[in-house]
Design goal:
By secondary structure, the protein is α/β, with parallel strands linked by helices. The protein is built from nine helices and 15 strands. The protein folds into two domains: 15-127 and 312-342, Quinone Oxidoreductase, Chain A, domain 1 (Alpha-Beta Complex), CATH 3.90.180.10; 138-288, 3-Layer(aba) Sandwich (Rossmann fold), CATH 3.40.50.720. Strand 12, helix 7 and strand 13 form a beta-alpha-beta unit. The protein is globular and about 60 Å long. 45% of the residues are buried.
């Protein structure tokens, strides 16, 4: 395992995690390097921010590869990026003061220098800072946009969510209920996570995908079929959802974590013909294409959070030096809810 102990004399120097090499299959600690940061002087319009909480997310695995995708790959030998909330230590930008908490995209660092246009002030007294990486941030907006715009959720719909105990999946289930879904079903990877979905998050039913076939669980828990499937997993889950899709059903594909570390292309669903029979629709999406919904969502979500309609469960890992462990844990499914690293 990579030695992540700071070198003598560097204890006060800010650090960053760099991509040391591109993984083949599952990433390992050897693919990362913990190094001292070069923190430049501020230019006009910039901020220096000391991060307090970082986000680690499955999509980051794709950026570790050189393959062309929707986001530029991380550069080998350079610091990685990701969501973070930090405290402004110095500002040369209007609208930002020392002590403000800001949301930005230069995580994987203890200290970040960034343009003010790439930061947003958040109220850490109204909600924990980590909530702005979860239900009050990109996670929640992903769930909302996927349900409202991509899946065109209607009141009375039956909704199935895979990876439901993860950050996005847990938000999807709660938001679907708030938007009028008649029944929400989730899949997760353990009995403990299944109980979390039904007892804590208000899912109507849930099952462990490790306990039998997904298609069998869906036939039992959604005997009259599924109107909306929110896909975070792909593979067997996607095929099972297509098999249970009702007439005019919609599938919003947010992620396919089951295939992220495959070294060979995963086989596609064998029952795509059902999309013809059901006049069903399957659509992939990225939250970045739906930021026009952000204001609407964040104001609504703040109310939902205040009245208990929406809650956030976190798995928090303490210490910047453990950020890689937290990221690898997300890929294994170790987390319940949002995985964050607290500095």
């Amino acid at each position: 395992m990579t030695d992540t102990t700071p070198t003598p004399g560097s204890t006060t120097a800010p650090r960053e995690w760099r991509l040391a090499s591109r993984p083949t299959g599952w990433p390992t600690p050897e693919n990362f390097e913990l190094a001292e940061s070069d923190v430049p002087e501020l230019a006009d319009g910039q901020l220096r921010v000391r991060n307090v909480v970082l986000s680690v997310d499955p999509y980051m695995r794709g950026r570790m590869s050189a393959a062309k995708s929707y986001a530029a790959p991380y550069a080998v030998g350079e610091a990685m990026n990701g969501g973070a909330v930090g405290v402004v230590e110095e500002s040369r930008a209007d609208g930002f003061s020392v002590g403000d908490h800001v949301l930005h995209g230069l995580g994987w660092r203890e200290v970040a220098v960034l343009d003010a246009k790439d930061a947003r002030v958040v109220d850490a007294s109204a909600a924990p800072a980590s909530a702005y990486l979860g239900v009050l941030g990109m996670t929640g907006l992903t769930a909302y946009a996927g349900l409202k715009r991509v899946a065109a959720l209607k009141e009375g719909d039956v909704v199935f969510v895979s990876g439901a105990a993860g950050a996005v999946g847990g938000a999807v289930g709660q938001i679907a209920k708030a938007m009028g879904a008649s029944r929400v079903i989730g899949s997760a990877g353990s009995p403990e996570k299944v109980r979390h979905l039904t007892e804590d998050l208000g899912f109507d039913a849930a099952f462990s995908y490790r306990d039998g076939k997904v298609s069998d669980h869906l036939r039992e828990l959604a005997p009259e079929g599924v109107d909306v499937y929110f896909d975070n997993v792909g593979g067997e889950h996607l095929e099972a959802a297509i098999g249970s899709l009702n007439l005019g059903g919609r599938i919003a594909v947010c992620g396919m974590i089951s295939a992220y570390n495959d070294t060979e292309p995963a086989p596609g669903p064998r029952n795509l013909v059902r999309l013809i029979q059901t006049r069903g629709r399957i659509e992939g999406f990225l939250v970045g294409d739906h930021y026009d919904l952000a204001g609407e969502y964040f104001s609504t979500a703040a109310g939902w959070l205040a009245d208990g309609t929406l809650s956030q469960r976190e798995t928090s890992v303490d210490g910047f030096e453990h950020a890689v462990d937290a990221f690898l844990g997300v890929l294994r499914g170790d987390n319940t809810g949002k995985m964050v690293v607290t500095l």
